Each structure stands twice: as structure tokens, then as C-alpha cells.
Amino acid sequence: MQAPRLEIKNIVKSFGGRRVVDDVSLHVMPGQVTCLLGPSGCGKSTTLRIIAGVEMQDTGTIHVDGQLVCDTIHRVPPEGRSIGLMFQDFALFPHLSVGQNVAFGLKKGRDVGARVQELLNKVGMSRYIDDYPHQLSGGEQQRVALARALAPRPRIMLMDEPFSGLDDRLRDDIRDETLEVLKGEGTAVLLVTHEPGEAMRMADEIALMRDGEIVQQGAPYNIYNTPVDLKSASFFSDINVIRGEVKGALTETPFGQFLAPGVPDGTAVDIVIRPQHLKIDFDRGGRGPNPTSVDGTAARCVVERARFIGASSLVEFRMDHDGSVLKATVPSVFLPKPGTPLWLMIRRDRCFVFPVG
Ligand SMILES: Nc1ncnc2c1ncn2[C@@H]1O[C@H](COP(=O)(O)OP(=O)(O)OP(=O)(O)O)[C@@H](O)[C@H]1O
User: Which residues belong to any copy of the ABC transporter domain (predicted)?
Assistant: First the structure.
């Protein structure tokens, strides 16, 4: 079996007695993009700096293509690790032209010109080869920075929020282009971001980080659809939470019964559902739809507020049974008036049940 391009095992790093990176392990295969995703301050950048070799871990190992690069005794210096870096503020050299910037990390030789041309072609910047960074837009500078980072053919590319300086539309384009170039080069990419949307767009695999630990790791689809806990679910979208208590492995709620296998009697649980997965039905003279095994029992509510937000509308409902407010996103053609009575159902295949605490 092929060795991972990058493998870190049990990395620990403390600052002032606080574990900022707490037993982090992950691997990235060649041509794969892994996103280290988590809120600000959770330890993502420190992990990246340790891999790059500019910070030293307290314990743990780093291997590249099966070879030990760093443990607590051996330490290959940053420049010997075949790692490319791209950071948001990793500026181009202002006094060098585009071509000279891309050539900067290459050993002098006959093929330098060809490699610079090849990369500038790939990022669509070859006609700017003699321009200087100040003559380029932010997006163009980012493309050149990518070409420069890739020029020495690094085996691994570490990227720390590389697109956050760009405006929204441009960012989407540059992300997609960058991904194509990186895949084409077969580089293993570890990308740090605090934006779930960016991670889901870019990653083959997401490592979700919180308080220094990786709490869940997997393909974007799996992380989004099978979160390990309430915090992981809420990191990706707004959520609705319905509190219940377990009795006989079931939780009784106004939306019907929910399975809570293996959860002891008396345990409080949160039933979690994303706003796009609530099912809405019309009021039929004070009655709602009949219960089904997939949708459970409908609970009555009235529309509190409905807002048009483009491709969808965001509707807030006040529940009759306890006055709580639940949120649903619906196709934007559906914009009910405040005060309209409706019925809500919770799809069993779309909700998560987590013990509280
Ligand atoms: N050299 C240092 N000395 C002391 N504390 C540090 C040092 N570097 C990082 N920290 C602390 O470690 C924690 C994690 O920082 P880190 O930059 O790794 O987080 P992050 O997840 O990348 O956050 P952000 O996205 O905001 O950069 C923070 O609380 C930070 O203040």
C-alpha cells in the first residue's frame, strides 16, 4: 500500500502550560486535499507551523512519504522538508517581477525558464511575466503566489486561509482554479480554514478541530450528515434543537417519538435538525397531516417572520405547544405571511439525537 505523503502522529504542543495542539494525528495522500477546519484559536495554524518546521512540537512525529522528518530528537529543517507554503499575507517580493518571483525558489539551471513558463501558463498569468506585484490585482497576486509555491515541486503544500483576502466571487473562482492546478501537480495539500463552506468546496477530507483536538475526520458529505455532536452539527449551519428525555430508549416529543438506542432512562437528549430539513405542511381547518414513520407527528405553529434571502427564504415559526421558535429554509417562492398557521414535521432520516452534556 502507498505510504501517505504526509503523516503526523500524536502531535502535542503547549504554550504556557495550555495544550494548544492536543494529540493530533492525520494523514494526507498524494493528490489529496485535507482541510483542517475549526473556529479561531483552536490550534490549526500552530499545527501547520509544526509541520512546516517553524515551530517544534513537544511530542509526536511527522513523516513524509514514510520517512521520519521530525520527532523530539531528529529534526529536518524547514527547507529540507519539500513543503510549499501559501498564507494569506505571504506576499510576493515587491522588487522582483512575476517571473523572478516564480523562479525564486528554483535552483539555477537550464530548465528554470521552462518551469516558470509552465506554471504561469497553468495559473493563467504568463502574459504578466515581466510585470511587478504592485501592478497586479489581489487575485492575480494570489495566482502568482501559487505558481511560486509550486515551482520547486513540493511534495506537500500547506495553506493557511490563503483566500481570505479576496472578495467573494473572485474567491470562488480562485479556489476552483487553485484546486485544479494542485490536483494536476499531484501535491498533497493541507489547508487551514475556519469557513465550513470553503472546506466543503475544497476538501477530499475534512479534519474538524476544536480546542486543540481533532473531533471528527472524514469526507465532507459524512462530516455534514453524521456529525459526532451538537457543536459539530452547528459549526456547519444554523440548527434547530428540541430537548427531550429518554424513557425506554425512546424520547417522546410533540413531533412524535425518537429512537435513542443505548441511552439510559432519564437522560436529557437534544434532537437536532438543520433548517432545510424541516418539513412544512398546510393547516386543514385546525388539523395537520397524518403521522408517518418517516416524518413523525406534525406539530402546529404560526409563521412569526419570513425573509427572502435569494435562492431560498428563511421562515421562523412559533410553536403552539411551547412557544419556542424553529427556523426553516425553503425555496424562495414560498414566503408565507406572519400569522399563517402551518404544521412542522421532523424527518427521521435527517435529525440527530445527542445526549446533553
Ligand atoms: N507562540 C505562541 N505563544 C503563546 N500562545 C500561542 C502562540 N502561538 C499560538 N498561541 C495560542 O494558541 C492558540 C491557538 O492558536 P492558533 O493560531 O494555532 O489557532 P488557529 O486555530 O489557527 O486560530 P486562527 O484561525 O485565529 O489563527 C491561541 O489561543 C493562540 O493565542
Answer: 6-236
